[in-house]
Amino acid sequence: MTTGSPLRARAPRSRPLGRMxxxxxxxxxxxxxxxxxxxxxxxYLAPGDIVKNLLGNRPxxxxxxxxxxxxxxxxxxxxxxxxxxxxxxxxxxxxSRSDCRRxxxxxxxxxxG
Length: 113
Description:
The chain has about 110 residues and is mainly alpha-helical. Helix content is about 55%, strand content about 0%.
């Protein structure tokens, strides 16, 4: 006969459900943060100046370029621009603010196709 019992007691779970859920949620927040930084940085990876890309081939004065930089907060530091952009993505703030719905005026030259 064997002296050990065939049924072994299970070891208690090392992590309770709440801790596991907290780890998952924090991991998801981390992934979303990194993803948002990557998406925001894609704007700066486009070739050329952002303002020139917004304006297209229109002739502009340096004062107009400076005004557009100020209007879209492109004259601020990158962390401040990122926080503004992240705030504009929030459904709570974007519904109450109208500055994220601002558009450039339509182009006067027709697009030939």
